[in-house]
């Protein structure tokens, strides 16, 4: 790596930033090895904010597979799919995410992508002791998939409830608060005595951790009306520092910065108007073009997309057959890939 970039060193920084923001992510990472001056410029956290606010590309995160090596490191293959305004796309494999692990003493280990925010990924790992014992060790990592840098959040060991009729359910939710400039992770643990009918055993344990600030998890004095819906059975999305998730026929919210409940939003009337339809629907929240978006997959035959206006009213965007969507996706990635797309407008992921 050279110390300078010759004539390009004399370009004003504003012009350099304008050039870099027009490049795909893969080319930006290649520019880091050109010279030390570019490395320092492109490694600055402020550049990430500038890039994500000005890039002309719509970027999707593709999760292809997860594997475990024999030397105790976990690896998940991720790719970026960058789509231009003309419909052209570039697929860029990310460097393998290497997270050190001592799971060799365990029979069962899982790594889960909790969420993504401002170009960072949050992973949770669960390492279960062998011989079927109920002790589990868990941890969370915040990872930059491009630089492969990561930090580990405070760890803790937990004994699972050994009662036969009790299941402990955990969920983690990663987000950023623009009002405080902080990344936070909310952790919810609760006991489920039965699924049909749904019975929660006792109050949930809710904790929060501010990334890079807290040395241990803080208890959160928050009693959500239905914490079970914040499990993996319902997706949680973050818009302007507020978590959103569906509870039956409403959308509940949680302000990350204030660490308290937000307003309750209503789903479109036509979505919840028919009980028979609702029972067959698969609803999912997304953030598209910085707008709260509801995708209603009705009876696995049609996809209906709704977006919420600034007035709080829903706007019906489009409706298409499920076959048409599957057909189009095959032109983007090979059919054998497991596809998970997170489209957040101007952000990396």
TrEMBL record:
PROSITE patterns in UniProt: FBOX
InterPro entries, sorted: F-box-assoc_dom_typ3 (IPR013187), F-box-assoc_interact_dom (IPR017451), F-box-like_dom_sf (IPR036047), F-box_dom (IPR001810), SCF_F-box_component (IPR050796)
Gene3D superfamilies: 1.20.1280.50
Domain F-box residue range list: 5-54
Name of this protein: F-box domain-containing protein
Source organism of this protein record: Sesamum radiatum
